[in-house]
Amino acid sequence: MTDDSPDIDLASLSDEELTEQMHSDLYDGIADAITEGTNIFLDRGWNAEKVLNDALVEGMRIVGIDFRDGILFVPEVLLAANAMKAGMAILRPLLAETGAVRQGTVVIGTVKGDIHDIGKNLVGMMLEGAGFDVVDLGINTDADKFINALLEHNADILGMSALLTTTMPYMKVVIEELKKRGLRDDYIVLVGGAPLNEEFGAAVGADAYCRDAAVAAETARALVAKRRAAA
Ligand code: B1M
């Protein structure tokens, strides 16, 4: 999907053409073009979620397929990830500014051994938009760091992300450590990431598996409301 054509006037493209071009620019890791395209869509009245899903997440899905098939390699995918982050930085304040009533605090991170953070960052943004204060511990987070942050911030929810089949079992390590310290029932535990599913979430003892960022935000609100109603 490499684009060797001279500079394209992105503003002159139709919505459909610009969406395709954004996928291509994401694939090629051209952060400036992603910034420009994101702003054009917003100027055209697209809401932040639509830009995110149609232009950015879909573009990264295509990158993922060629990464899996050995057509793209780590350096190229890193450039694509940086371009995606450039678009996300523009959308972040828009997704957070919903004026939602404060819901509580979420501590979120990507588990130990895993450096994928795009999905986790999106989940953080959607949680902010849903009214949560989000404490983001970043990548490669071990059980001590998660638990210390939960205690320090008097959090309501622990959110863990994993993108690798080799790192997802670490979620169970964290939950077992919470149990060992007698803290498990103090928190709602949500888990997510591409290789997980409902069954895995239940098996590691999470309260819920969340398929995507929107589901994570809905689930967080629903489970906090349920817990408060029961208190
Ligand atoms: Co990686 N990588 N990667 N990678 N990478 C995958 C995950 C992979 C599926 C690619 C493939 O082969 N098709 C594969 C994993 C295979 C497996 O385990 N079965 C893989 C591999 C193998 C690797 C390396 C081992 C490659 C290598 O070094 N040889 C290496 C691992 C490094 C490590 O972590 N120790 C590696 C490295 C990298 C990059 C650094 C190059 C880069 C990451 C950059 C970054 O994140 N800053 C990268 C990328 C970008 C990917 C793909 C292409 C895209 C991931 C992504 O950002 N998706 C990915 C392919 C794929 O997933 N199809 C791949 C977009 C994002 C919006 O979706 O993260 O799924 P996702 O998040 C969603 C949901 O899953 C959910 O909501 C999000 C938004 O809707 N969600 C949650 C996520 N976390 C949640 C937490 C929650 C709730 C919901 O908590 C409450």
Number of helices: 9
Number of E strands: 5
Work out the radius of gyration.
19 Å
Shape: globular
Query: Which ligands, by name, code or SMILES, are bound?
Result: CO-5-methoxybenzimidazolylcobamide
Strand order of the largest sheet: 2-1-3-4-5
Distance between the termini: 54 Å
Largest sheet: 5 strands, parallel
SSE succession: HHHHEHEHEHEHEH
Which spans have pLDDT < 50 for at least 5 consecutive residues?
none
- Mean pLDDT across all residues, rounded? 94
As a percent range, the share of helical residues equals: 55-70%
Structural class: alpha/beta
Strand proportion, as a percent range, falls in 5-15%
Describe this structure in words.
The protein is an alpha/beta fold and 231 residues long. It has 9 helices and 5 strands. The chain has helices spanning 15-27, 31-43, 48-68, 74-96, 118-129, 143-152, 170-180, 198-204, 213-230, and strands at 104-110, 132-136, 157-161, 188-192, 208-210. A 5-stranded parallel β-sheet has the order 2-1-3-4-5, sandwiched between helices. Helix 5 links the parallel strand 1 and strand 2. The longest helix is centred in the middle third of the chain and has 23 residues, at 74-96. The radius of gyration is 19 Å and the shape is globular. It starts with 14 loop residues before the first helix and ends with a helix. The model has no long low-confidence stretch (mean pLDDT 94). The chain binds CO-5-methoxybenzimidazolylcobamide (B1M). CO-5-methoxybenzimidazolylcobamide is lined by residues 57, 60, 63-64, 67-68, 74, 77-78, 81, 113-120, 122-123, 159-161, 163-165, 190-195, 210, 212-213, 216.
